[in-house]
Amino acid sequence: MSINVRRFMYGAAISETTYMPHTSSHPEPKVRATLYLSAEILDQARNAAVYLAGYPARLTLTKLAEDALRAELKRLKDQYHDGKDFPPRDADLKGGRPIAA
């Protein structure tokens, strides 16, 4: 299975990368993702990563973000999809304003 990753700037795609995930016991390859966060959240995350960079936590901004996304995805799966993985999407995410509820 290959995965396409698109990078966006101001709503327009600026590049696309395709990679093949490893299926062995090696760690998953990392890909660059661009997203927008509030300045306050990013500043707090950077502060935590710097403060906890050494022994014993050895925290990085990537690890913090990955752990937070994994925890939130688990919560969303449990709450909305009986704990199962969400089905693969058949289209890329659309940029712009969120859809109003």
Summarize the structure in words.
With 101 residues, this protein is of the alpha+beta class. The protein has a domain of 56 residues. Helix content is 33%, strand content 15%. A two-stranded antiparallel sheet has the order 1-2. The radius of gyration is 16 Å and the shape is extended. About 6% of the residues have low confidence.
C-alpha Rg (nearest Å): 16 Å
Shape: extended
Largest sheet: 2 strands, antiparallel
The overall strand count is 2
Number of DSSP helical runs: 2
- Give the overall pLDDT as a whole number: 81
Strand content: 5-15%
**Element-by-element helix/strand order:** EEHH
Spans where pLDDT lies below 50 across 5 or more residues: 18-23
Structural class by sheet pairing and helices = alpha+beta
Terminal residue distance: 34 Å
Largest sheet, order of strands side by side? 1-2
